[in-house]
Amino acid sequence: MIRAQLDKLLTVVIAGVLAGLALAAAALPAALVFGIGFSALSTPYSELPNTLRTPPTAQRSNLYANDGTTLITSFYQEDRVDVPLHEVAPVMRRAIIAAEDVRFYQHSGVDLRGVVRAFTVNKRDGQTRQGASTLTMQYVRNVLSNDPRLTETQRAAATELTTVRKLQEMRYALALERELDKDEILTRYLNIAYFGAGAYGIAAASKRYFSRSPAELTLAQAALLAGLVRSPDSDDPINGDADSALTRRSYVLERLAETGQVPPEEAAAARAEPLRLQPSETPNDCTAVPETHNDWGFFCDWFTRWWSNQSAFGATADERQRTLRRGGFSIVSSLDPGVQWATTEQVLKIYPVTKADAAPTAVVQPGTGRVLAMSVNRVYSVADNPVGQKNHPNTVNQLIAGGGAIDGYQGGSTFKLFAMLAALESGLPLSTDFVAPTQLLTQFPVSGEASCDGRWCPSNASPSSMDGPRTMWTAFGRSVNTYFAWLTERVGATGWWRWPNGSASCCGPTRTPGWPGTARRTGARSPWAWPRPRRWTWPPRTPRWRPRGPGARRCRWSRSPMRARPVDAAKPDCRQVLDADVARAAADAARCPVGDQSMYGRCDGATAPGLRAKLGRPVAGKTGSSERYETETVVAFTPQLAVASMAANPDDPRDAVGQAVQAQMVKAVGEVLTVALRDQPVRDFVPPSERTAFQVTAARTGN
Fold it and tell me: What is the pTM of this model?
């Protein structure tokens, strides 16, 4: 036992002296050498830096579609994914040892023979031509230089050529070898080494150079990769010097033959092989989605924005992005490739990618809030556009979900739904009747063209089909402006709503938050203040809204299991924001605009009458035109699926797309529902209670 300890001590002392001589060309003081030697011998594994005991190697994260296998893209700072040793071809293991540390399985972390050889050669040549680093020492250096908790200066210090740094490597290497077996050290080394061309670790390198897994590497391929780790940038055969790479390959093959790892004839045959590269790049970030599925880019962009807002992944947005690009997550998203394909096909029938007008369309699953598809007639790309075209045909602005440079779009008459919800919550039933006039003078103060003696006075767009006795069913089906203006007076427009002239709304009952408050509660968001309108239709110049999941239960997108371990941010975040009976009543009235019939047979008139007949199953929805037809909106939903599509010019919000496009949008939304629901059972809506439908009869009032 004493002899063994003395041998280890002698190993450390000699290694320290010779390494210092080899690198610094000067002997260390004896006291320093012996001090370091004894310190290294007595340092336990448990006191090593955490990074060496549990190396925090950066690994790429992969984003998949909802089938768990279709790769959307990857995110990484270093293209790396760890693999166990049994998934690395034996010839690759032998090649890296032959290239970098032929006595790997004989030494204890520091190779005295290598140190003596390096010292002799370097002393003879007068410069550092050979190193004495074992694979274990190289592993220590790689781990310390890649520690994400260190600053750039600290990481650089971990690889600087100094005697102190070399001795530290030796101490750490000896401690590691006392705790870990050789195969574990080799596995860690292969997974952290840099092979050039942006490939970190043997799995990424095998794919980068040969488009195959490390288990499939041939002798010639393994020898080439093993030869790259010495000078990965200059010898890189893709971006650097292919001749140098071949020279290093020959060196590795010679070492394999000399040490008896491969027969000489096999080494010679591999040496004669030409350089047969099959390069492939791992996609990185949303602009690298497969070219044939460029439309996935907007969903990917939305995902990264979602990730950046989740506190579970870091304290700041920057920290969360670093977590994504270094954490090695496998993320199964909610994107359905089939639904996405059908949505994109229909969007491009509304507008081509070269059109300034856009048709952002989203497909959402009611009850969970999961987004199955996001599509728009644009190329997701950072490429330049023709002069004067900000967002077409190329853009990475979020034209569908909003955010960043995109504020959102006006929903037009689809927002009558929120006035109806507020009314239902206040106790008014669907049967609430009112004789809708062509024009209604309200109590809300405004100025300008929309003013009638200082008050807002909206008119019906089509008096012949809209005027007269109406209930919520028929008024919603025919999109009667004056009915919903009257209803807004009944339930109030309080809360955060401010009229365009800057005055806060003070009118109407205060027992409810009004329909804007209802809209916000169900997830709609308004990112900006209202501009002054030129004239008023319905709704009263609504702000630009960013939509969220519909329904009585508001849910955050939740489908993102990470590496098969629970993550708080990936759990469903559903909460009841509307009474279930209120939501059912609103859905019952929403069957009227699309040609369906309510549970009580009260629908009469529609703005998209053919949708129900074409779809062949119960459906609800609403169309909407904003002021001067600057936007057109079509929303349709079944119990299983909801689709929302808008037409607008993102470059010029005041540019009117025109009412004519609405018919094509209705057709497109219907086609998406047809394809997406093809294999799903026909389900009907749950009827509202008679109390919600008929309990109160409002007095007939009008102007």
Answer: 0.79
